[in-house]
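Example 3.2
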Amino acid sequence: LNKLIPFNFIFANCLFLILSIKDTYGYDKDGNPTGEIVGKTLTCVDLVNFEQIKVKIPKTNIEITNEELLEARENGKRIFIEFDNPFVKPYWNSNSKSVEDSFIADDFHIVESEL
């Protein structure tokens, strides 16, 4: 564990369809929520296997809001994105007693919008 795996080792295509954007909240060293917004979590779909993933980015000021995204989707528009410096970060989940994946990136950018 504690290894970062580049997205291109996992995903055949690093273009994703974005579904939603939510605030990511921080935790203190004891694992207690602080209530502080420390970034965003983007729910997106891989365009090859249609796997849904959640990617955390450490930015709060981003290119599109969830409201703008929902409005675009209601109007039949699909928004595709690529991540900047994306990695898969395996970790031990003590609740499920298994290794699970966390997806992280520095940022994202919109590649194209389709009607």
